[in-house]
Design goal:
single chain, mainly alpha, Lysozyme, Membrane-bound Lytic Murein Transglycosylase D, Chain A, 3 domains, 3-stranded antiparallel sheet, two-stranded antiparallel ribbon, 7 strands, 39% helix, elongated
Length: 306
């Protein structure tokens, strides 16, 4: 049912290389930014983890660049089968000139993918937690979704490398942009010395021993001045190993999944530490909690993040 020879084998190599190099793939980032809204939308309607839908979309469509995706809007490699009476295109997969479903839009492909997983053969998946992406990945392989023996691990690697579980936490579409603009500047970090992470819809790196703002600026194309401003650090601050350095301006609130989740201050932890941990502006953190400017973090105090 899938273009394993043309897509999965190729992407398997790409994923292995990207994990080894600890880099992010620009095409994958663009795909995630473009279709995360649809994936969350399907999750809310059909209880399929958005992380699984996005990872499958990347694998099955070559991040939206395969012939099946560009000519037929088919992002999940679904063949016609006996029940499909709509248009199709011919693509050689397990056999020559197999019939694959053709959709009027990518959204229609996403909807049909959800309907496809409602077949009895996949019923066991819906008994799993929506947060159990590993169970879903192995379950898809066990139920026969793909023939590639590494299929589950390819999905899991994508989900973990690109922090796709953040989209599994949404309980509504509020605050999630439909087709947001990709961050080309941040993709320049491919083949760099730092792994790029994602937190609260922002990208960040973790400073290593001996790092300077100038070092990170050269890799990210974000100026030292902006790096200091984004991270609310003084001009004379010297980076330490383990410092979280955001590459865009931090948000005024924590991630939507933290709406009812407080942070309990630990010994030695400062308000700035908490702000960096959750990708929130320090001033906003004080404002959210209605704290005076001279408040100093105290162990066991409760800090709200939204």
């Amino acid at each position: 049912m899938h273009l394993k020879k043309l897509i999965l084998g190729f992407l398997s190599c790409l994923i292995t290389l990207s994990l080894t190099a600890q880099s992010l793939n620009k095409s994958y980032l663009d795909y995630i930014d473009k279709y995360k809204y649809m994936a969350v939308e399907q999750m809310l309607r059909h209880n399929i983890p958005a992380s699984i839908t996005l990872a499958q979309g990347i694998l099955e469509s070559g991040a939206g660049k395969s012939r099946l995706a560009t000519e037929a809007n088919n992002h999940f490699g679904i063949k016609c089968g006996g029940v499909w009476d709509g248009p199709y295109i011919l693509v050689s997969d397990d056999a020559p000139n197999e019939k694959f479903r053709k959709y009027r839009s990518v959204r229609e492909s996403y909807e049909d993918h959800s309907d496809f997983l409602k077949k009895p053969r996949y019923a066991s998946l819906f008994r799993l937690s929506q947060r159990d992406y590993k169970g879903w990945a192995h379950g898809l392989k066990k139920c026969g979704y793909a023939t590639n023996p590494q299929y589950a691990y390819l999905l899991i690697n994508l989900i973990e490398s690109y922090d796709l579980t953040q989209y599994d936490r949404y309980r509504s579409l509020k605050g999630l942009k439909d087709g947001s603009v990709s961050s080309d500047k941040l993709v320049s970090i491919i083949q760099s010395n730092h792994t790029v992470y994602r937190n609260n819809d922002n990208y960040y790196v973790i400073a290593k021993a001996g790092d300077t703002f100038e070092d990170i600026a050269r890799e990210t194309e974000v100026s030292p001045r902006r790096l200091r401003n984004y991270n609310e650090l003084p001009k004379d601050y010297v980076l330490k190993a383990g410092d979280i350095i955001y590459l865009e301006k931090k948000k005024r609130k924590g991630h939507i999944s933290l709406k009812r989740t407080p942070h309990i201050i630990k010994p030695g932890e400062s308000m700035y530490d908490i702000a960096q941990k959750y990708g929130i502006r320090l001033e906003s953190l004080y404002k959210i909690n209605d704290l005076p400017d001279d408040y100093a973090a105290k162990p066991n105090d409760i800090i709200w993040l939204r």
